[in-house]
Amino acid sequence: MINIILPVDFGEKSDQLVDEAVKFAKLVNGKINLIHIAPTDIGFAIGDMGYQYFPEVEENEIREELVLLNKINQKVLAHDIDCEHILKQGIAKDIILEYADTKNADFIVMGSHGRSGIYDVFIGSLTKGITKSSKIPVLVLPIHE
């Protein structure tokens, strides 16, 4: 079975990216490994007393993101595609590449923004970073309005 890493960010184009990744997984008899990277600064705020950390804010945000990730997982499973998911915190590019390595991934599927001709805007800086650093093929799917 082909192992596919699918990073998701819950943006407005995530549903379209998931739909396209499902089509690809069906074509290659693939399994989708969903990954969401939460920022490490979720619970921090700056105020009169400088930076403050609010663990309850971070816990609530992580809980909400896990709910969203579970929904995407269920959506993929409903298409009879094997799927698992994980949420991690840190630097997205590094974690995605490490996860792909640990899963012995065959592909990483990413989306392009399709907004402009400027490379970083068109492809996206994370997709660009993954594409430049990955040792495995990166399938960049056009995600449009």
Automatic annotation (TrEMBL):
Top-level taxon of origin: Bacteria
Mind telling me which InterPro entries this protein's record contains?
Rossmann-like_a/b/a_fold (IPR014729), Universal_stress_UspA (IPR006015), UspA (IPR006016)
The record's SUPFAM superfamilies line, in alphabetical order, gives: Adenine nucleotide alpha hydrolases-like
Per UniProt, the keywords (alphabetical) are:
Cytoplasm
Q: Which CDD domains match?
A: USP-like
* Domain UspA stretches: 3-142
Query: What GO cellular-component annotations does this UniProt entry give?
Result: cytoplasm
Compartmental location: Cytoplasm
Q: Where is the signal peptide?
A: none
Under Pfam families, the record lists:
Usp
Main location, first listed in the record = cytoplasm
Q: What Gene3D superfamilies does this protein map onto?
A: HUPs (3.40.50.620)
Q: Which PANTHER family match?
A: STRESS RESPONSE PROTEIN NHAX, UNIVERSAL STRESS PROTEIN UP12
User: Could you say which protein family the record assigns here?
Assistant: Belongs to the universal stress protein A family.
Descriptive protein name:
Universal stress protein
